[in-house]
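Entries read chain and fold; for instance:
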Amino acid sequence: MKKYSASTTINASPEAVWEILSNSGGYPDWDTSMDHIEGKLALGEKVTFHTRVSSRAFPVTVTTFEPGRKMVLTGGMPLGLFKSERTHTLTPTPEGNTDFHTEEIFSGLLLPVFGKNIPDLTENFQNFAAALKRQAEA
């Protein structure tokens, strides 16, 4: 298993953060690594991420969609041979802000083969969390 994550506290309500996070068309406005997203972020929908850092598209399915709380994007190969699962979690703070956590876990029987080609994504995750924070607090 390979795992990357980042967390931050955002000075905005979970609902305000969710509005940004669930708007697939708005990502290029605040996420500097995102070129565009095909599809709608909603439960059961297939979505394809096109980033500026890779020529490869990343198709996923929205497997959890709890407005204001949690979104899970799952991709990979059939039979769980290789799986990626990206989870965004929003937790309200007593002050009315949002603790945001994002992580991606790569797993499966073919992880030793494909895992060699996955670069260290720590900085990408930190940049994503920081960009979401800036957008929500603007």
User: Anything to note?
Assistant: Strands lie at 2-10, 34-38, 46-51, 57-66, 70-76, 83-92, 98-107.
